[in-house]
Amino acid sequence: MAQSFQTIPTLNGNLWVAQSALYSTNSAIFYDGTSACLIDPGLLPLEIMSILNFLETQHLKPEYILLTHSHWDHIFGPEYFPNARVITHNLFCNELSGEGSERIMNRIQAFDRENQVRRVRSFRIPSPDITFEDSLTIQIGDLSLNMMHAPGHSPDQCVIYERESKILWAADMLSDLEIPYIYHSLKAYQDTLARLDRLEIQQLIPGHGQDTHSRQEIETRFQEDRAYLDELGGLVKKAIQAGKNLEETQQECSRMCYKHQEENARPHQINVENVYKEFLLS
Ligand SMILES: [Zn+2]
Description:
- This protein has seven helices and twelve strands.
- It is α/β, with parallel strands linked by helices.
- The chain has one domain (4-214): Ribonuclease Z/Hydroxyacylglutathione hydrolase-like (Metallo-beta-lactamase, Chain A, 4-Layer Sandwich).
- The chain has a seven-stranded mixed beta sheet, covered by helices on one side.
- Strand 10 and strand 11 (167-169) form a beta hairpin.
- The model has no long low-confidence stretch (mean pLDDT 92).
């Protein structure tokens, strides 16, 4: 499968973004001088090898690997960079313990079978060397990378903000392809977006899909995702107040309009189910 690399110059040092042939998943290398920091370095073995080759040809030392969250499609790669320190949110390990770890291993084995993937190094569930609660700043040469807790999509999700060039690595949010996937909490998702919207952003890079420099496009992505969450929350709340069951609530929410309606129909259904449960429990 093809791998495409784009180089995106920043004010200090550089950022390389690699987009996987699968799910348009983005991986990154922030680098300055001889230091490098990787973000979600996956998915396919050949793609990981391309990251290794880039580091080698540029004479870069991978010092850190930032894993944005514990979902299976974001945790490949650390086994290829044994000397880099893995950083995650401190809930990462909770998400991948017990049943969570079994679920992930099964999902990855199924993925490898479906895609006929042969791994040079067997996949291992990453074990973080450094974790944090709210935010953590690391230094890569002159680059300052701020990793911030951004729950809602998952309890342990984090975004990365590079202050100098005002780049936001948005993990699984603010995509041009995906609607918000609410696997954790609608309320947390709304709070996270409100917080991120206060940042000055000159470049937005989602975990899946295209990056954008356009101020208008960045604003639109925030507006669309917020509008989707607000409408969904409003409809589910009204349905519960009217004594409707989940099936009837699904029916009510099926008339909502959102981006890439066909591709996102299933995630939308899951969102309704998750928000219905969240509201019932609150
Ligand atoms: Zn995810």
